[in-house]
Design brief:
299 residues; mainly alpha; 12 helices; 82% helix
């Protein structure tokens, strides 16, 4: 029995030594780089999968979250076509359309309001103030951020508009057609206008200038911009040279630029008042406190 066990131990030891030397041999003399092999295999696996951008993955996540309400509740709610169209334009102009469609945005808005109501009911017994804060942030936060983004985008479009007209007018003065002048202006205009004007150039290959102006004005829902392009369109219909139509509105553009500058100054003044107001109040309280204490003691 002991000799049988000894034979098994010798055989096991021999196999172990053989495996050890095989491992060392492969480690020292193998031409295959293990790390490189693993790297190549991971690359093959990655290339085999469809790469999904962060924007697309976020969009898919939003669609999953809003799917129940988007399919069952939103279709039963009355929503005017004008508001739907306006929401779609605002999502596009603010680039929120990368993540939301009008339906998913409304569904997310409603989903967050339901979640805010549930959180309020759960938390208000512990702290009413904290529950109200959660209700406001969760329930109305997305609307606040979106409306603020719309307002900021419109302000950027309006602020950059005079410079855009000035650049395009420079190319028109060289007797270039409007689409060509706008195309040559693309590298020099503000980024917020670049994509809109690029679409104008692309549309000009298929549609007339008047139709392209209508498309551009429809996307930029700003009175001053729509007024300018409507006058340009009117001049085109009256066979007035496009260069003259731009020159005729030079005074309006200069006045618009001055009004934008004045608006910026007023906003900075308002911001300074908001920031300095509490500081001024603190200073009044600090310096007036001794006098107040003396008056109270005299009483």
């Amino acid at each position: 029995m002991s000799s049988f066990l000894m034979a098994i131990l010798i055989l096991g030891g021999s196999v172990s030594v053989f495996l050890l030397f095989s491992f060392l041999f492969d480690l020292l003399f193998s031409k295959t780089d293990t790390s490189l092999y693993k790297k190549r295999m991971s690359q093959l696996k990655t290339n085999g999968k469809t790469k999904v951008s962060d924007e697309e993955s976020a969009r898919q996540l939003i669609e999953k979250i809003t799917s129940p309400i988007a399919k069952k509740i939103i279709p039963n709610l009355e929503y005017k076509e004008e508001k739907e169209s306006k929401l779609a334009k605002e999502l596009e102009i603010t680039k929120w359309n990368k993540y939301y469609t009008p339906t998913t945005f409304r569904a997310m808005n409603l989903t967050l309001k339901i979640a805010a109501a549930i959180l309020f009911l759960v938390v208000f017994q512990e702290s009413l103030i904290f529950a109200l804060i959660l209700l406001i942030i969760v329930g109305f936060g997305i609307n606040f951020l979106f409306l603020n983004s719309v307002k900021e985008t419109r302000f950027k479009l309006l602020s950059a508009f005079p410079e855009v007209i000035k650049i395009v007018q420079g190319y028109l003065s060289a007797n270039q057609p409007l689409p060509i002048a706008i195309e040559n202006s693309l590298p020099y205009v503000d980024e917020v206008w670049r994509e809109l004007l690029r679409e104008f150039v692309i549309n000009a290959r298929v549609y007339s200038q008047e139709e392209c102006i209508d498309m551009l004005s429809d996307k930029v829902d700003i009175f001053e911009v729509r007024e300018f392009w409507s006058l340009v369109k009117l001049n085109l219909k009256q066979d007035i040279d496009i260069k003259e139509s731009f020159e005729n509105q030079a005074d309006k553009i200069n006045n618009l630029k001055e009004s934008i500058i004045n608006d910026k100054i007023e906003k900075r003044k308002s911001f300074s008042v908001i920031v300095q107001g509490p500081l001024l109040l603190d200073m009044i309280v600090i310096f007036g406190l001794p006098t107040f204490v003396q008056v109270m003691n005299s009483l």
